[in-house]
Amino acid sequence: MDDHVTLSFPKMLDEIIEGLEKDQKELPSKYFYDQRGSQLFEEITELEEYYPTRTEMRIMQDNMPYIIRTVGSDIILAELGSGSSKKTRLLLDHFPSITSYIPIEISEQYLAKVVQKLNQEYPDLQIEPLCTDYSMPFQLPAIAQPYSKIVFFYPGSTIGNFQPSQAKAFLNNLSTQLDPGDGMLVGVDLKKNISVLETAYNDRQGVTASFNKNILRHINRKLDANFNLNNFRHEAFYNRDEGRIEMHLVSRTDQTVTIEKEVFHFKQGESIHTENSYKYSLADFETLVSEWFSVEKVWTDSDHYFSLQYLQKI
Ligand code: AVJ
């Protein structure tokens, strides 16, 4: 079975062709996440080198009562890019008063599986999954039960995948669904020593390399495309001027790739830019969101590697 209900074929094709026609070729990082890509990301989160997931979970565990008090009761929790919902389980296990949970996820098969499991584990929780590409405007499903407020949960520093201008458009779009007093619990990765950053995206086992290349496999599977994964190598580095980790796939040779009758040439050493992962200072992040949200609380770890922040719609 194919998982392209919301990511309709013409849209995916258009976005991919548009990216590969640029001088610096690029692909939207959301296309990492088919079933296999979501699984590979889960493996990344367990790597020694990849500190963000572990650190964020630790921050949550260490501050749970405080987080719950801040977020409030009788809320609708809408999670952006819910994946395995592992961090949500942490919240659900400590939060007696989540009225409804809306997992929002691009990978349809993965979402269906996770929701099925959650329904068994939390029989009293109302779960309303939404399979969509949340980087585009979307509408939350209507919730019948009474609730006090809507809280978006956006962990993992996935907001760092957006360029600041895109992040602002995204925040603007989210805020149209919120009333003043609603909120967002968001994970934000912080600026730090470059070698810590670069190691996190260049693990020894090569899981991140497989994850990066999976974008090509996904395109081959969904579209009529013939990327040879062996002809590309993984590259990840910190771009200090932009304050972001960049992932690229570098062509090992001069080569030609065909996607639905469109032909693309790659020179040896030429790259496809596949992902940005922005790292923020607390002040930069506050400025980024300030048009729509006030930063109510910031929790961080002792190394100041990562932050969990509660933002309130103004
Ligand atoms: C899921 C987007 C937060 O940017 O660190 C992990 C994805 N890419 N390793 C990140 C990712 C390479 C991850 N996010």
Overall description:
The chain has 314 residues and is of the alpha/beta class. The protein has 2 domains: 9-48 and 195-278; 51-192 and 280-313, Vaccinia Virus protein VP39 (Rossmann fold, 3-Layer(aba) Sandwich). The chain contains 9 helices and 14 strands. The protein has helices at residues 9-20, 35-45, 51-71, 86-94, 108-121, 164-175, 194-200, 207-222, 282-289; strands spanning 25-26, 75-80, 98-105, 126-127, 130-131, 149-154, 183-189, 232-239, 244-251, 255-259, 262-266, 271-278, 293-300, 306-313. The strands form 3 sheets. Strands 2, 3, 4, 5, 6, 7, 13 and 14 form an 8-stranded mixed β-sheet that branches. A 4-stranded mixed β-sheet has the order 1-12-9-8. A hairpin with a 2-residue loop joins strand 10 (255-259) and strand 11. Helix 2 packs antiparallel against helix 8 and helix 3 (51-71) runs parallel beside helix 4 (86-94). The radius of gyration is 20 Å and the shape is globular. The chain starts with 8 loop residues before the first helix and ends with a strand. The relative contact order is 0.17. The model is unreliable at 1-6 (pLDDT under 50). One of its GO terms (molecular function) is methyltransferase activity. It comes from Fodinibius sediminis. Keywords: Methyltransferase, Transferase.
